Amino acid sequence: xxxxxxxxxxxxxxxxxxxxxxxxxxxxxxxxxxxxxxxxxxxxxxxxxxxxxxxxxxxxxxxxxxxxxxxxxxxxxxxxxxxxxxxxxxxxxxxxxxxxxxxxxxxxxxxxxxxxxxxxxxxxxxxxxxxxxxxxxxxxxxxxxxxxxxxxxxxxxxxxxxxxxxxxxxxxxxxxxxxxxxxxxxxxxxxxxxxxxxxxxxxxxxxxxxxxxxxxxxxxxxxxxxxxxxxxxxxxxxxxxxxxxxxxxxxxxx
Amino acid sequence: xxxxxxxxxxxxxxxxxxxxxxxxxxxxxxxxxxxxxxxxxxxxxxxxxxxxxxxxxxxxxxxxxxxxxxxxxxxxxxxxxxxxxxxxxxxxxxxxxxxxxxxxxxxxxxxxxxxxxxxxxxxxxxxxxxxxxxxxxxxxxxxxxxxxxxxxxxxxxxxxxxxxxxxxxxxxxxxxxxxxxxxxxxxxxxxxxxxxxxxxxxxxxxxxxxxxxxxxxxxxxxxxxxxxxxxxxxxxxxxxxxxxxxxxxxxxxxxxxxxxxxxxxxxxxxxxxxxxxxxxxxxxxxxxxxxxxxxxxxxxxxxxxxxxxxxxxxxxxxxxxxxxxxxxxxxxxxxxxxxxxxxxxxxxxxxxxxx
Lengths: 254, 355
Fold this sequence. Notes:
Chain A has 254 residues and is mainly β.
């Protein structure tokens, strides 16, 4: 009995001074590392603010701001037993924030037929209230349907009269607000990274080729589509199309 | 049995010593959590309160007394409130403020409200100081402002008839120093919360705005017209600032480097913090150098007066045409909306007056 009392007290000591952690050998932690390149050349915020890049249309340009939202990271099993991570990340390349994301959910070891995430928010998530995103002024005006930006890519380019001009390549849910009612077209998309086999803690590199936003299938002319793109329905649809080839799975470290 | 009791007592001692840093006789002032407005509670992240400087009744009262007391200046003639007057939302109506010897600074005094929600904690127009506590150090010793030194101030406060008791009550400290002075001032400044404008009441469905105000909000949010929201918030970000640094096209040749002076990065030259658009009715003149006396001047700047320079923000659209080219009606409506963000109850709040 005395021994039980002592063990009970020791139990209190440990419960009082440390957090609980249920660890099993069949679970692992996954980390997503977001890296960026321009057609294979690494890009970080140290490359920003100078005319460093040339897009598919031949325009020389700089990047001054790049931040984007991903959500719904999913590890898919062939038997349909998916693990969905109910979280989102605002990757802020300009300030080197959230370049790495480790979900609080642990992932069972095994083979997954696909790993995927959503670029932006799906429609259900897009119209919720997120104080952290509000605090980052990430909102879309209600006259454009509300919700949140998916990406803000800004900088300067050399325009067709050789002047340095600003551009703001902002992606949102496409909306036509020319009529009495707003008409939407979804522009979030699922990025499929392919199958993976996980045996221990894993770090996934998610590579964004920024050049792709200006390339395929729509060769982007910043002289025509440089700014005021949020209310431009067709531009949003074109950006959505170009986004399909932007992301790739890079290295997996286990 | 005795051995067992000793063993149990020893374990309980470990529990207490491991899980608490407070001794039983440590002085604890009265907690006074910030009263967070409903809109802020609902829409944005929690305010920044340093763990080493929690809000207390005694600390706030001391900070308020210090804020209004010229004892912090070199010749006992100037208080913080001289350049940060409550009736002007804690800014100065002069373009540049006079120091105690008549010296003029080169920046317009910044208004003080909602500073606990400055998440990056970069203060001043150029972001040169991290944290509200550290911000309070600078004006006291600035030779163009209060021109004092902390050794003298600490001595004056220590020899004062009231302050030693007030510091004791606020911090349990018998020795007064600059760290405690700035902590007290920061506590008071964090209480300066403005969230009761006409637009706030509109968002809370308490009043209906005028047609001009509502249309002005549309101009503000419309990317093809004002496009103000990217830097100045929106109905879901009631701070009405992004607290980020931008070159908003004031000058073709940048002479005041702003953030660039602080970071040493030429890409930051000419960048200054976006000020909140709250309380514009009380905070003229406008811009970091107070160059514009009226809201019409400010609106005209963004509409037709933009100057291109290498670091101008990409969001300053149509710079080649001088700006966003608002119609006269849009300008009137935009001004009406901007004024709806002013908060009379803030500038008249008795808790914020020198009394």
